[in-house]
Amino acid sequence: MKYLIVSDIHGCLTALEQVLQFYRVHHYDMLLILGDILNYGPRNGLPEGLDPKGIAEKLNEMSSDIVAIRGNCDSEVDQMLLNFPILSDYTLVADEGKKLFLTHGHIYNEEKLPCNGYDAFFYGHTHLWKLEKTEHGIICNTGSITFPKGGNPPTFASYEHGIITIYQLNGDALKELSL
Q: How many CA atoms lie within 13 A of 30 on its CB side?
């Protein structure tokens, strides 16, 4: 399978549309969303292109290809707009014998790692992309496509055949690691 992994959309339809264009052009099989989908959050400004209803429409069109988990800005009200579940705090995806742990980062993170074993730990929440090998496996923070921090560009990730890549929103690869 070929997965595109995104976090911290925060209601920005224009950023999501760029990610979905990359998804289509590169023929991904599934979209894995690590939370903070519709709501921009009280600590963030209003993003350019804020359109939660538009995001719900775009994502609902492809709901059978989405696995999503809850971010700290997601709620039951958001779930009412979406045709796929978003309220789990984490999920584990198994692909070609590899275990990918997916979470938002506000409950499980690098300071509080899960104990159930995984090959790669994916999260967002901090809006700071990261991709590195550790004693626990690969750690990947996808960053944010809407509100990147630390002077970083907007970013998302992909996973295919044991290879994790961080991409800028414009499609340029920043870093790649193999499991």
A: 16
Residue 92's φ and ψ, nearest 5 degrees, are -115, 125
Give tens-digit pLDDT for 118-165: 999 999 999 999 999 999 899 999 999 999 999 999 999 999 999 999
Q: Which residues of 149-171 are buried (b: 16+ CB within 10 A; e: fewer)?
A: eeebebbbbbbbeeebbbbbbee
In this predicted model, what pLDDT tens digit does every residue of 1-35 receive, in sequence order?
999 999 999 999 999 999 999 999 999 999 999 99
CATH architecture entry for 2-178: 4-Layer Sandwich (3.60)
The residue ranges of DSSP E strands in 7-151, in sequence order, are: 30-33, 66-68, 90-95, 98-103, 120-123, 130-134, 137-141
pTM tops 0.90, yes or no: yes
